[in-house]
Specification:
GO terms for molecular function: phosphatidylglycerophosphatase activity. This protein has about 230 residues and is of the alpha/beta class. The protein is about 40% helix and about 10% strand.
């Protein structure tokens, strides 16, 4: 029920706090994946969607899609096709997952590919391209969806992906450290970085977080969730 120490993420977190705040600012924020307009996302040129797992599509450490967000998940599979939907987790498929047993189990249960990156986000961009094997796809043509700013959003932005930030939907089984860090990220860090963006770094920072090829002219979010 726990994840091992992620030194790279901690070092990068300091870099984000003091230098590259834009890395932790998502392009799009939604309550959960039912609010993403997948048809518009595809129309905008997105070729595949990569998801974080825990607290984004499943309850922490569970194997099935949360019933609450299932309408959004099903819509994503329908629009993009299973072969273009991936899961990139810091548990299954990561360095914590011996012989990728959990990842293989989830491949079968969820019917989509869990990326076997053997590391921890924010590393692993190459593994995503490999998992999409031979499609000549670029990271800029992908969307990354996750609930954590310092892992998921930073990971997506580092790779040049469109980043979609979701709110956690279950804190019940999450570990205490993850819970506290996430609360700090959402309640303090993101509002502060957004304030910086509007008040201190209008030029360069704005440009980096507000422009992305997949954002052009598309209404990527819904006002009502899919049911
Ligand atoms: Mg998560």
């Amino acid at each position: 029920m726990s994840q091992s120490w992620n030194g790279t993420a901690v070092r990068l977190a300091f870099d984000v706090m003091f230098k590259r705040q834009w890395l932790a600012i998502p392009h799009v924020t939604v309550t959960d994946i039912r609010y993403i307009n997948f048809c518009e996302l595809k129309k905008a040129g997105c070729r595949a969607v990569v998801y974080d797992k825990d607290n984004c599509i499943t309850n922490p450490y569970e194997d099935h899609i949360s019933l609450r967000v299932k309408p959004g998940w099903d819509e994503c599979l329908r629009v993009f096709g299973r072969e273009n939907v991936l899961i990139m987790s810091n548990s299954a498929g990561s360095s914590d997952d011996k012989d990728f047993e959990k990842a293989r189990h989830l491949d079968n249960v969820l019917g989509v590919q869990v990326v076997k990156h053997g590391g921890k986000k924010p590393g692993g961009h190459d593994a995503i391209l490999q998992a999409l094997g031979g499609k000549d796809v670029k990271l800029e043509e992908l969307a990354f969806v996750g609930d954590r700013l310092l892992t998921d959003v930073v990971f997506g932005n580092l790779g040049g992906m469109l980043t979609i930030h979701t709110q956690p939907f279950s804190l019940k089984r999450d570990n205490r450290v993850a819970k506290s860090v996430r609360t700090m990220e959402n309640a303090l860090m993101l509002p502060f970085f957004r304030w910086l963006r509007h008040n201190r770094y209008r030029g360069a920072l704005n440009e980096r977080v507000q422009t992305h090829p997949l954002l052009s002219g598309a209404g990527l979010t819904r006002t009502e969730p899919l049911e």
